[in-house]
Amino acid sequence: MSIRDKEKVDQMPWAKERIAEAQAALDATGNLEDPAVIEALLNVEKKCRLSNDSIATKLVAATILQMCRAKRAWATHIAHCTLLAKRRSQSKAAIGGIVAEGLAVLEAEPAEMTDLADREALLKALCEITDGKMYCEGERAKLTRMLSALKEAAGAVGEAADILQGVNVETYGSLSKREKVDYILDQVRLMLAKGDRVRAYILSKKVQRKTLLEDDLQDLKVRFYKLMVEYHVLEDEPFELAQDFFAIFSTKCVLDDEAAWRDALSSTAIFLALSDHAPGVSDMMHRVLADAAAAPKLDALPTSKALLALFTTDEIIAYPMPDHQAAVEDHPCLKTAGDDVHLRWKKTLHTRVVQHNVRVVAKYYRQISVARLANLLGLSEDEAERHVSHMVSSNGLYCKIDRPAGIAQFHKPKPPDEVLQDWAGDISKMLNLVEMTCHLINKESMLHKDVLGL
């Protein structure tokens, strides 16, 4: 029969007497090594444990650690945390009490344990104690985070990220939804700081976007999308950036802060302009212009409103854009990742303007001379041909260039099968009309015959 199966024997009165005697011995000698102090209490703890009295066991264990704390004997404190937790058939209540005493030392204000080596040793000991114990999962999450913060403060960002990443906090039932999201955001932040963008993206997928729409998680929503901005900037994904900034703009706490919504909304417009043309991009541009919250605020951002209007209108955009070029290129959102990325965004803006202009020309012309096309785009003939070729290769446009004749043809000829189908369809429509006409003529003829009595 195991200890836990035995009938409980109440040892609390006896344990309190022994604790009082040990405390008196400590007050008299001031020495934790005195056999009447910790050694005597360890014997008391053993008897309480064997008697299956978890409450008394917890009290004795906590008393031992409190004595060590009072004397600032941190090495002894850490050693007895591990010793008491690993004793045979130690109760959950006692282990919970040991962890609670350790956390009390670490969270004390002002800090009692000032030596970083001692703090790290205690944190590692408590993490080892709580490992695999579901009833201590909340404490384990907190301890791991504290250990990670200690490593980060010491400059070991990679090690801090690895420590925190090892906690699958989304499976912890004892933590609230807010605590879980906050924890995951810290994991993502450290992975980005470490430079591991792949793992940062994987961790970000643990956060459900619909969860962030709750009113009490507004600050975490803004934090999350700012981290996604940091990730997508380095991944060169302007449309994703536009969605991130618009999600930030759509947050109530941001709408109440003029500086915040100005930055978010103007960044949304700029990154939509920088996005490669696609139905989703075009749809989002129109949605932003028509959005109940964004539309009135765009009036206060003339550059952003003009930029969206230019890219949603089938007209040639002059480059550089009059009145708006400098404001767009100097926007802070384009400078967050350094000069190289800023230069890349500027080149991308020019490319998107050229591509928009090519699509406009293709809409209004079946064919055009390459020289005239280059003139409309404000480029040399070679550059114009290069941009058109890139759009054709990426399936964004149909164009066939006759170099000897210098003609660009945007009208796609139909294959023979399609021509035949169209012809068959036209013939079928014509025969239906002839049949309907004959029917109506016969109907009128019969009516007139009846009227005349023929």
From TrEMBL:
InterPro entries: PCI_dom, PSMD12-CSN4-like_N, PSMD12/CSN4, RPN5_C, WH-like_DNA-bd_sf, WH_DNA-bd_sf
Pfam families in UniProt: PCI (PF01399), PSMD12-CSN4_N (PF22241), RPN5_C (PF18098)
Domain annotation PCI: ranges: 243-415
GO cellular component, one term: cytoplasm
Gene3D superfamilies named in the record: Winged helix-like DNA-binding domain superfamily/Winged helix DNA-binding domain (1.10.10.10)
PROSITE patterns: PCI
Keywords associated with the record: Proteasome
Protein name listed in UniProt: PCI domain-containing protein
